[in-house]
Amino acid sequence: xxxxxxVKASNAxxxxxxxxxxxxxxxxxxxxxxxxxRALVSTGASVRVYIVGRKSSEARTRAFIExxxxxxxxxxxxxxxxxxxxxxxxxRVCGIIKEKESRIDLLFLTTGYAPVGVREDTxxxxxxxxxxxxxxxxxxxxxxxxxxxxxxxxRVISVLGGGLERTSSIILDDMELxxxxxxGPFNGQIHCxxxxxxxxxxxxxxxxxxxxxxxxxGWVNTGNVNRGYEPxxxxxxxxxxxxxxxxxxxxxxxxxxGQRYLFQCTSAAYGGQxxxxxxxxxxxxxxxxxxxxxxxxNKCDCTPNSKVVAELRQKAEGKVWNYTQEILKRYL
Length: 332
Fold this sequence. Notes:
Low-confidence stretches: 235-243
Number of helices: 10
Number of domains: 1
CATH superfamily: NAD(P)-binding Rossmann-like Domain
Order of helices and strands: HEHEHEHEHEHEHHEHH
Distance between the termini: 40 Å
Oligomer: single chain
């Protein structure tokens, strides 16, 4: 376990040289992404941060940006509106970023929520939570790979369920969970989470200059436990009366969550580059200390899950890779 005091001590050492100069936060309008943006800007470093979010989030995000400017006048925080549950919108947003930047140091991906109730497909024919938690995230990575490769210490962080994979997590004969028995909050989360790991594990091997993370945030009250429930339904009341209280009691505060993710964004504990680290060195899914894909838990410890990932490479990688490429190719 990396203690919170160790995290804060490491983050206090962040300099202009180790802070990510250009960062893209997809999902930075709320939750873990929002807390991490605040932590990054609060370092006082000269950073440029792009926050990508839905039109409905623009007003509150612009107020947040004004607050960030008062915290750090050297920070350039930019809003980009985009409905990233649509892959065509992901491509449009990436086009804007490519026009403005020649390199990206950090791509931070947090969109999504557990699918509850009836299935809801987007106009592009993909179930919305699967798009947010997997397809749009992978499209952002693939679209922005050229800019990531130009950075000195590029990192990609996808926040979902890294380290929780099982060999049976991916339903290979129903990749989009079309069968009613396969669709639901539990199957949807573990299915998309394992697909994140499998696809990024392949990307990490093909692009060894980039450090990839699939992270599990633990319990943090981001508000996402309420999404998808009808207001005043019995499940909405259950979440409000019990689940949110449990999360508040046992989970991380917003500040600690942001600081822990800032640590993952900057520390040399993962891959050897970044803010100096004298603690335990993290190991990737290949059980190595160099760059690669790191599965990181809520305590900032690496959980390589190497036996499971090795089996997923063998039995699932080819189908996941080909199926994903077939969907994404329309938007590249």
